[in-house]
Amino acid sequence: MPIFEYQCNTCSHEFEKLVFASDEPDIACPACDSHDVTKKMSAASFMGPSMGTCAADAPKGFS
After folding, report:
1. Stated pTM of the model
2. Strand, coil or helix: what is 30?
3. Residues β-bridged to residue 7
4. What is the torsion angle, in degrees rounded to the nearest 10, for the CA atoms of residue 28, residue 33, residue 36 and residue 41?
5. Residue 47: how many other CB atoms lie within 10 Å
6. Which residue from 21, 39, 44, 45 has the fewest beta carbons nearer than 10 Å?
7. Gyration radius of the chain's alpha carbons
8. pLDDT of 2-61, one tens digit each?
9. d(CA 49, CA 22)
10. CA distance 50 to 57
C-alpha cells in the first residue's frame, strides 16, 4: 500500500494519498477538488542498510 505525494497544479496544495492498485488513477486535490495534479518524486521510506534504515537517515542529496 504505497503512499504517494502529489502537488495540485491549480492551487499548489501538496498532499499525500494512499493509493491501492484497484484505485482509480484520477486523483483529486483535497483543497480545491481539481484533478490536475502531479505526482512528486520522493525518497523511499525504507532505503536499506547501506543508506540507513529510513529516508531521514539518507545522505545529503537523497532526501
Report:
1. 0.60
2. coil
3. 14, 38
4. -50
5. 18
6. 21
7. 14
8. 888 999 999 999 999 988 777 667 899 999 999 999 999 866 555 555 555 555 555 555
9. 32
10. 10
Amino acid at 41: M
Contact 23, 8 (CB under 8 A): no
What is residue 55's three-state secondary structure? helix
Cell numbers representing residue 47 in the block: 532505503
Q: How high is the pLDDT of residue 63?
A: 47
| Structural contact between residues 6 and 17, judged by C-beta atoms closer than 8 angstroms | yes
Residue whose C-alpha cell is 540507513: 52
Rounded distance between C-alpha atoms, residue 63 and residue 50, angstroms: 15
CATH of domain 1-63: 2.20.28
The whole-number pLDDT of residue 1 equals 61
Alpha carbon of residue 9 to chain centroid = 15
